[in-house]
Amino acid sequence: MKFPTLIQFFTDPILRAPAVGSMFMCLASSLIGVITFVQRRSLIGEALSHATYPGVISGILISALWCDPKLSLPCFPILIGAFLFSWLGLIAIEMCERRLHLNPDASLCLILSLFLGLGVTLASRIQAIHPFWYQQGQAFLFGQAATMGDVHIGLYATLSLAIVSLIVCRFRQIELIYFDLGFTQSLGLSTSLCHFFNHFLLILALVIGMRSVGIVLMSGMLIAPAACARQFTDRLGSMFIISATVGILSGFFGVHLSVCIPLFLCKRPLHLPTGPMIILVAVLLTFLSLLFAPKRGWLARMLRIRAARLKQQMDHLLKVLWKRDTAQASYLRSELGLSRLSLYFLLLFAKKKGWIRTGEAVTLTTHGRCKGAYIVRLHRLWELYLTSQLELEERRVHRSAEEMEHILTPEIEERLTQLLNNPTRDPHHQPIPRKGDT
Amino acid sequence: MKNGLVVKNLTVSYDHFSALWDINFEISCGQIVGIIGPNGAGKSTLIKALIGLIKPISGGAEFCGMDLKKNRKRVAYVPQKKGIDWQFPITVFDVVLMGCYGRLKGLKWYRRSDRDRALQLLTLMQMKHLHKRQISALSVGQQQRLFIARALMQDADLLLLDEPFAGVDKTTETLIMQVLTELKAQGKTILIVHHDLNTVEAYFDALIILKTSLIACGKTEAVFHLKHLNRAYGAKGVIFDEAIRLSLSRFSGLR
What we know:
The structure holds two protein chains of two kinds. Chain A is mainly α. Chain A contains 19 helices and three strands. In chain A, β2 and β3 form a beta hairpin. In chain A, α11 (about 220-230) crosses α12. The radius of gyration of chain A is 32 Å and the shape is elongated. In chain B, the strands form two sheets. Chain B has a six-stranded mixed sheet with strand order 6-7-8-3-9-10, with helices on both faces. The interface of A and B includes residues 171, 182, 185, 187 and 235 of A.
């Protein structure tokens, strides 16, 4: 069996429906996910998607009464049932919070288990009477994209595009209401209508996504793309766009991998379950972005910290060398409090910059001496500034100067020089290196 | 008097206790008015009731002879900082632009003139260089100036500020007061919930002293004296505050 090319996922009659269908579903849920994410109510998706289960089962029950089991799975009663029960769940959650004064997370948990419990009870009843229909119902628990047909594409594409266009049209309103509810109310706008509308979209997205990702994993598809997008931007508009892209990509590659991995591993046209695969891709993308995003990612933060520390250590090294001109490595190690390895790298780096010469002992080059003098100048200027201008005690200024010598910019140095009238001695009567020497 | 803010029989209650009890006062236009009172006196509640965040049990407010409920476009509101989600993905510039949302029509796209105005206001607030920042990267003083810029963007005649000077440094406070004084000169009415009794006389033309019910309302020099403060803060608190004020002025005189 040959590997399908990427284009075949859009043309091949068997692969086409799951791939395109999943992409639309993920598009819808990743957009709505942004809204629940910025609202800080990520778990509402989880609760409402589980609340659809009894709806799915009742939908199946109804179709079992009228439909011919040989037909493919009828969608409408199931989708409508799911929608209604999810909405019921939403109302129940709001009742618990507002009227019964239960914590938000506790009420989410309570309603989730209540509805799922109801669903499981109904399902076990069906299992006994209509085993065939029960099987069909289970497809919704974990999703079954592989059995989708072209009809499904049309249906889900329409619903997803409706969500996209509604979000585009109401973007400013969404931004306003979730950023500052009080301000929105002070403008005299009705907030309950907007909330109603966004909940409608949320449940619609859940119902759409159920078929490919499944009830159990649906909330991941809401939150993962949004969390991923948040790493890259500080604006709600771009967050929607990035999240949609991540959603579409994970929808496509989820289907792609679920087909290709079995082909690769056992050379047989088996299918891995699509829903979990989509979620895995989305969560993987999210973790990658949490680790490696340019500004907010873990790696970038570590590098920033590392760079600052390196600069600090380098400044200390140059300062110590400037005071002694030449020093043994063992002396430097004890003075800077570094391990053998860190000192080795520090010296290597300084040598590369052309600041020091290493041999028997470490010595400064001319360039390095200027650099060292500059740091000592900053240190002593700052000490003098603190004692003479801010009237701090002499013995208390050293610590602050130790920190500020790494931070002060040439402009501040210039201003300090002018303010202190180009001084030559610091408060401890040590000479301040002249500007020409640095 | 048809030419100002008139509050009639305003009563607000939360669940089981009343936060405001039968408030009646009148304020003429073109003044900076301070609302003072101890914690829990209903200062913020008064502001929230005025703009409709809380529904009063009875009474209401009129501004320039029109019911405030139907006149929302003429009111701007600066909320307390603690109610804002600072991690929200939004930039300084977008927050200021929000101020003109009430005027937008149709699809609610901002126009070029709105953007220019927003930048102008940020310049006024000395924050233009920060306009692309995410809002959590601002200092407390900058955050406060940002929300005042948004209120200015609304171009309203009545401004309601809920504790704008809480946790703000002196420079920002002076800047904000400067801007507000300019607005006053343009004939706008400004209500400020305030805590620091030391600055009351310097800042406000008129005062509203609250403690659940209205204790006094009128020109600052007529209202701001011990008798009323005693009733608002209780005798003990006032002596303490008075002592602090004395010691502050004594020391600032020395320096």
